[in-house]
Specification:
This protein is α/β, with parallel strands linked by helices. Strands 1, 2, 3, 4, 5, 6, 7, 8 and 9 form a nine-stranded mixed β-sheet that branches. The longest helix is centred in the C-terminal third of the chain and has 20 residues. It starts with a strand and ends with a helix.
């Protein structure tokens, strides 16, 4: 398939109307200069999110579901309609600085083996979030140093700025080459949420592509704003059921 636009952006949203509006406002500033299409897939929100998108963002392609399909299946709805050479998957509880997308695109253009990239994430108070890809002791040590520097300066400080090749990325902000997703396949509809990240990243790596965390760029992520509405018990249930389903499919055994 020859891409018809530069970039397809897909946002799956549930009951975070105000945050979704802020996300779209920041996104429209960040994609200036690109041929872009933006999809919002609303998973049966009850807070008027779909109506807000339809009235305030007429340029956005809205898919309003009658039921909550989960993260992966909802993304797949828009992925099947997307036409961009690059695909950006973005959480609705994020804010995108104006240079973040451009720097991620530039990295993919320079490093042809890179198939998926993502930025650092700050919380709403400007503090560096603990990204779960930091499994190496050295990286944990660097995280602690940067947190101390942030406390001293009163704002976030990235000291160790080099990009990191990682096995997995938090899916709050993924930028992928279209050809990567076409070759590895889209999300597994059976995984409602949480297991999509290890599943998709494993398939991308096994197909020979690299995954990178870009430390010199960031987004703001107001984390867990949708799932917290379900309560801790329901959140844990989604996590364990999805992970068990993925492991069973992955290893061919009962969990």
């Amino acid at each position: 398939m020859i891409p018809e636009v530069d970039l397809s952006v897909i946002i799956v949203s549930w009951n975070v109307r105000a945050l979704l509006k802020n996300c779209l406002d920041s996104l429209l500033r960040a994609v200036q200069g690109y041929q872009v299409e933006i999809f919002v897939v609303d998973n049966a929100s009850r807070d008027g999110s779909a109506d807000m998108v339809a009235s305030e963002f007429p340029q956005v392609k809205l898919i309003a579901n009658s039921e909550n399909l989960g993260f992966g299946a909802a993304n797949n709805q828009a992925l099947k309609l997307s036409r961009g050479g690059y695909i950006l998957l973005l959480n609705p509880d994020t804010v995108v600085p104006e240079d973040t997308i451009t720097k991620m695109v530039q990295f993919l253009e320079k490093r042809q083996k890179a198939g998926l990239v993502g930025p650092e994430q700050l919380d709403g108070k400007g503090r560096l979030l603990l990204n779960w890809v930091r499994w190496h002791p050295r990286e944990m040590g660097e995280y602690v140093v940067e947190q101390l520097a942030t406390l001293i300066r009163g704002r976030y400080r990235i000291i160790f700025r080099r990009p990191r090749r990682v096995p997995i990325l938090n899916a709050a902000c993924w930028l992928a080459r279209r050809e990567v997703l076409e070759k590895t396949g889209f999300f597994d509809d059976d995984l409602f949420m949480y297991a999509e990240e290890p599943d998709m990243c494993t398939r991308i790596r096994e197909a020979g592509w690299e995954i990178w965390l870009l430390r010199e760029v960031h987004i703001v992520h107001y984390k867990r704003q949708s799932i917290r509405q379900r309560g801790l018990f329901q959140e844990l249930k989604f996590f364990f059921v999805s992970m068990a389903t993925w492991l069973r499919k992955r290893w061919g055994r009962e969990i």
